[in-house]
Design brief:
single chain, alpha/beta, Rossmann fold, eight-stranded mixed beta sheet, two-stranded parallel ribbon
Length: about 350
């Protein structure tokens, strides 16, 4: 059998000029892949090839990422800018069709928002190491209760400024621990996993295409009297995933109830109850001075928050299954591609009936 080829198109929609990677035959079931933060559709090539023999796979770049239009992100809408962009794309290329949705990291949150807004259009949902339903930072229990009323320790001000600087310089080095290369290899993956050199370079190219600034990544910020002195602004990527603006708990009550597969790496350091990107956990470790203590600001229980949401979904009549892949970080589809494709293929076949 001939290996599926990847086609790259730019598609104009009423909302956004969108770069889309595609594979698979016309008329096959539709599968939408949604990438995460500091990435792009280029991170999906293994799945486009691995699933393109059975599905019509589409992998767009979100706004301000990759080759899509660098429109600003209205963070006060949470992740709805992205969900609305994707709906406009689907209405342009596949009007009225149901779609299987696979979202990775922040893309998992976008997938849930899309299902909240368009449940009747979703055939199934795959969540790969998804962000918490209450976004990233600043909450302290399974219900997403904020640590502070202003949601301090979330939003655009929480990005590592050295990482942002090196992104702007398109630094490809490995000497600085904050370089994109080191962040990918030490946090997207569980060391010592490494991609083939040419693939690693291609993903760095894709990362450097993203737009930086207050309207894009990481976004603006607001000073706070609360630890660690930064609170969310109103624009840009990291504010869009602040719990001040994103709350996906309504997913538990959607009526269509598509089946859900939740896949996560056992050793994920990004989305975790002990995330090395969460100020609560960093404060506990002593890495950020002035931590007010676990009673005021415990580590965000990201995995527990997602499990609580999916348990409520199941109690309301939905169904989900959880697959934890051992010896795996934040990117199972890259670290354990064969295992990931097997699990996704089986789930999609079952969801199709």
């Amino acid at each position: 059998m001939t290996e599926p080829s990847i086609r790259i198109d730019t598609i104009e929609t009423p909302r956004l000029r969108t770069l889309v990677r595609r594979a698979g035959p016309e008329g096959a079931p539709l599968l939408l892949l949604i990438h995460g933060n500091v990435s792009s559709s280029a991170f999906w090539d293994e799945l486009l090839i691995g699933l393109g023999d059975r599905y019509r796979v589409i992998a767009p770049d979100l706004r301000s990422f990759g080759g899509s239009e660098a429109k600003g992100i209205d963070a006060t809408r949470g992740v709805r800018d992205f969900a609305d962009d994707l709906h406009a794309l689907l209405e342009t290329i596949a009007p009225g069709e149901k779609v299987h949705v696979l979202g990775w990291s922040v893309g998992g949150g976008v997938a849930l928002q899309y299902a909240i807004d368009h449940a009747d259009r979703v055939a199934s949902i795959i969540l790969e190491d998804p962000m918490s339903p209450f976004g990233f930072g600043g909450t302290k229990d399974a219900e997403g209760t904020p640590c502070y009323p202003d949601y301090a320790a979330s939003g655009g001000g929480t990005a590592n400024p050295e990482f942002v600087r090196l992104l702007g310089e398109r630094d490809r080095g490995s000497d600085n621990p904050n370089s994109a290369r080191n962040v990918v290899n030490n946090f997207y993956f569980k060391p010592p996993f490494r991609l083939a050199p040419e693939r690693e370079e291609a993903l760095l190219d894709a990362i450097f295409e993203m737009s930086l600034g207050e309207a894009h990544y990481p976004g603006d910020m607001t000073p706070s009297a609360n630890w660690p002195t930064v609170a969310p602004g109103t624009r840009g990527m990291n504010n869009a995933i602040s719990p001040k603006y994103v709350d996906l708990s309504a997913f538990a009550a959607i009526e269509a109830r598509p089946p859900v597969l939740w896949i996560r790496g056992a050793d994920d350091q990004i989305v975790s109850d002990t995330s090395l990107f969460d100020f609560g956990f960093l404060g506990l470790l002593g890495a950020v001075p002035g931590w007010p203590g676990a009673e005021v600001f415990p580590p965000q229980p990201m995995v527990s928050q997602m499990r609580a949401l999916l348990d409520r979904y199941a109690a309301a009549g939905g169904r989900y299954q959880e697959l934890v892949i051992p010896e795996c970080g934040h990117s199972p589809h890259l670290e354990h591609t064969g295992r990931f494709l097997e699990a996704v293929g089986s789930f999609l076949a079952e969801a199709a009936g």
